[in-house]
Amino acid sequence: MTTRAAKILFLPGAGGSASFWKPVSGRLGPEGILLAWPGLGNEPPHPDVNGIDDLVRLALRHITEPVDIVAQSMGGLIAIRLALAAPSLVNRLVLAATSGGVPVADLGGADWRTDYFLAYPGAAPWIAGPQEDLSARLPSITAPTLLLWGDQDPISPLAVGKRLASLLPHARLQIAPGGDHDLARTHAPLVAAAIAHHLGAPAACNNASGIIDPFRETSR
């Protein structure tokens, strides 16, 4: 009897584009869903999305069965929130260059907000607001977690990955030498291989993951 691999949910960072993970998702075999974040980056806004809580609810609409979650930067905060809100629906986590709910500035992270709004002047201002420190809740997450970090990331420096590794009980930190905040794009073969190993998925498969409308109705 063959067990079907879990679906992978790919979450981008504050750039908002579902295409962020395409260089990696195209190398992985299991079916995947690439979400976009309305109102962030160059993505058009949606009246139902006005903060991080709304992004969590949006992502939950697309988890109709247990999934693996692969997340970048701000998307990693959403992934952590999902693992806390619905632990039975999150099999495994891959968090790349994220805050993961810990105070990044306290660990030497550079302020990204000025450059972000210069690049995306139409982005929703709520993305720059303060976020809750989830450090005390992270030890309750039991999902096996791969932490992917570049050692040249000024926004989420390696100290953040090490802090998360110390708080998440089933976490492993893997470092991409020379990687920065966009290591999923600049180091796509390495990142895809690491994810495939963590998820037990075949790598270098030609199955394309699907970019979907985040507000498309899903069956339950």
- Give the proportion of residues in helices: 25-40%
Count of strand segments: 7
Largest sheet: 7 strands, parallel
Q: Given the helix and strand composition, which structural class is it?
A: alpha/beta
Query: Number of helix segments?
Result: 7
Distance N to C terminus: 25 Å
Q: What does the overall shape look like?
A: globular
Q: Give the DSSP E fraction (strand runs of 2 or more residues).
A: 15-25%
Q: Segments where pLDDT lies below 50 for 5+ residues? A: 203-220
Order of helices and strands: EHEHEHEHEHEHHE
Across the major sheet, the strand order is: 6-5-4-3-1-2-7
Average of the residue pLDDT scores: 89
Radius of gyration: 16 Å
Protein architecture, described:
This protein has a seven-stranded parallel β-sheet, sandwiched between helices. The chain contains seven helices and seven strands; from the N terminus they run E-H-E-H-E-H-E-H-E-H-E-H-H-E. It has helices at residues 22-25, 52-60, 74-85, 113-119, 158-167, 183-186, 188-199; strands spanning 7-11, 32-34, 67-72, 90-96, 145-150, 171-176, 210-211. With 220 residues, it is of the alpha/beta class. It is globular.
Gist?
This protein has helices spanning 22-25, 52-60, 74-85, 113-119, 158-167, 183-186, 188-199; strands spanning 7-11, 32-34, 67-72, 90-96, 145-150, 171-176, 210-211. By secondary structure, it is α/β, with parallel strands linked by helices. It has a 7-stranded parallel sheet with strand order 6-5-4-3-1-2-7, sandwiched between helices.
What are the defining features of this structure?
alpha/beta, 220 residues, seven-stranded parallel sheet
